UniProtKB/TrEMBL annotation:
<feature type="domain" description="Phosphoribosyltransferase">
    <location>
        <begin position="9"/>
        <end position="149"/>
    </location>
</feature>
<protein>
    <recommendedName>
        <fullName>Phosphoribosyltransferase domain-containing protein</fullName>
    </recommendedName>
</protein>
<dbReference type="Pfam" id="PF00156">
    <property type="entry name" value="Pribosyltran"/>
</dbReference>
<dbReference type="GO" id="GO:0016757">
    <property type="term" value="F:glycosyltransferase activity"/>
</dbReference>
<dbReference type="InterPro" id="IPR000836">
    <property type="entry name" value="PRTase_dom"/>
</dbReference>
<dbReference type="InterPro" id="IPR029057">
    <property type="entry name" value="PRTase-like"/>
</dbReference>
<keyword id="KW-0808">Transferase</keyword>
<keyword id="KW-0328">Glycosyltransferase</keyword>
Length: 164
C-alpha cells in the first residue's frame, strides 16, 4: 500500500488553528464560512470558532465514492444555498482537501457571481488541484487518512454514496 498522510484529531486541532491564524494574518475578515460537506464541516466549524464567525453555511457536493473512486463531475446536492443569502458577502469556502480541485471550483464559481469576494481554505492541497487555495495548511500528493473518515461507518445505508 502506498504511503499515506495521517491527520489525527490532535493534528487537526493544530492544523485548524494554524490555518485560522494565516487567515487572520492576511487581514481577510469573512462575513460567512461556506462549508463543503462532509469533510469541510469540521474545518468550517473550527475556523468559525477561531475567527469568531457565527454565520456558517453548508453546501453538499458529492464527488468521491471511495478511495481513488469518483464521479465524472462533482454534483451539488440539495439544499443548495440561496444566492440571495450570499449577496455582497465576503465568503470563506472551507474544505478538508483540494484534491482535483473540481469540487472547490464548482463552489467557488457558484459564489463568484453573487458575493463581494470568495477565498478558499483547506487543510490539504494536492499539486494537481485546479484551484490554488488562498489558505493551505499543508501540501501533499499522498492519499490522506482523515480522523473523521478513516474508520468504516457504524451503519451503511442502502443507496448512499459513502467514503470507503
Amino acid at each position: 500500500m502506498a504511503e499515506r498522510e495521517e491527520l489525527t484529531w490532535e493534528l487537526f486541532g493544530s492544523a485548524s488553528k494554524e490555518l485560522a491564524q494565516a487567515i487572520a494574518d492576511s487581514g481577510y475578515e469573512p462575513d460567512l464560512i461556506l462549508s463543503i460537506a462532509r469533510g469541510g464541516l469540521f474545518v468550517a466549524g473550527a475556523l468559525g470558532y477561531a475567527l469568531d464567525v457565527k454565520n456558517l453555511h453548508v453546501m453538499n457536493v458529492e464527488f468521491y465514492t471511495g478511495v481513488d473512486q469518483r464521479l465524472d463531475l462533482p454534483v451539488m446536492l440539495p439544499p443548495v444555498p440561496n444566492a440571495v443569502d450570499l449577496a455582497g458577502a465576503k465568503v470563506l469556502v472551507a474544505d478538508d482537501v483540494a484534491d482535483t480541485g473540481a469540487t472547490l471550483k464548482l463552489v467557488r464559481d457558484f459564489c463568484a457571481d453573487h458575493v463581494a469576494e470568495v477565498r478558499c481554505a483547506v487543510i490539504y492541497e494536492k499539486p494537481h488541484s485546479q484551484v490554488q487555495c488562498e489558505y493551505v495548511w499543508r501540501r501533499t500528493d499522498k492519499w490522506i487518512n482523515f480522523a473523521w473518515s478513516k474508520e468504516p461507518p457504524v451503519v451503511r445505508r442502502e443507496g448512499q454514496v459513502l467514503d470507503a
